[in-house]
Amino acid sequence: MQTSDFKKGLAIKHNGETFIITQYQFVNPGKGAAFTRVKLKNAKTGKVVEQTFRSGEQIEEANMEYKKCQYMYSDGSDFHFMDNATYEQFAIPADIVAELADYMMDGMDVTVVFVDNAPVTLQLPTKMAFKVVSCPPGEKGDTATGGTKPAEIETGAKVAVPLFIKEGDKIRVNTDTGEYVERANE
């Protein structure tokens, strides 16, 4: 595969080790050759390194397996999942789940990415609907300014929402950025 095929969450082999791409940026300077700057997370150690690849450079893709799994519960240090196909249960350390935990609810389906038969990351739907459980009232007269206020969704995460959102509303949140997208009609 080439550097133009890079995307967040992809596993590659580099220097004999498996890495997960956490961020990438294509750079085309006015002078000189284009390149891609990448942040890579080591699949085994979790260490993050920055690497630069020349544009068009061939990179070996690691063997990735995607499994639909059900999130069951968290015990504080680990998150427990069940494989929907085999009903096998397994745990993923909290440092791998990281900020995605803010958008996970018991019983929801997620995609777990396995590299070399070990879970390395999760994939949630990009946009998900949540109920607002706590939200201060908007100030009268502030609605024309396009301001925001903090709201707490049912998972406990805080999201900046427009002033017209109130407690009990359903909102759609981008799970990659943590930003409010729209009011949900569900």
Task: Describe what is shown at a glance.
This protein is mostly beta strands. The chain is built from 1 helix and 15 strands. The model has no long low-confidence stretch (mean pLDDT 84).
Mean pLDDT: 84
Report how far the terminal alpha carbons are from each other: 41 Å
SS field, number of helical segments: 1
The biggest beta sheet, please? 5 strands, antiparallel
Q: Supply the CATH architecture of the largest domain.
A: Beta Barrel
Low-pLDDT residue intervals, each spanning 5 or more residues:
none
Q: How many β-strand stretches?
A: 15
CATH class of the largest domain: Mainly Beta
Overall geometry comes to flat
What is the CA-atom radius of gyration, in angstroms? 20 Å
Beta-strand percentage? Answer: over 45%
Provide the CATH superfamily of the largest domain.
Nucleic acid-binding proteins
Indicate the structural class: mainly beta
Q: What is the name of the CATH topology of the largest domain?
A: OB fold (Dihydrolipoamide Acetyltransferase, E2P)
Protein described:
The chain has one helix at 94-97, and strands at 11-14, 17-27, 35-42, 48-54, 60-61, 64-74, 78-83, 89-93, 109-115, 118-123, 127-134, 148-153, 158-162, 170-174, 179-183. It has three domains: 3-61, SH3 type barrels (Roll); 64-123, Beta Barrel (OB fold (Dihydrolipoamide Acetyltransferase, E2P)); 127-183, Nucleic acid-binding proteins (OB fold (Dihydrolipoamide Acetyltransferase, E2P)). A five-stranded antiparallel β-sheet has the order 4-3-2-1-5, with no helix packed on it. It has a five-stranded antiparallel β-sheet with strand order 8-7-6-9-10. The chain has a five-stranded antiparallel β-sheet with strand order 13-12-11-14-15, with no helix packed on it. It is 2% helix and 52% strand. The chain is an all-beta fold and 186 residues long.
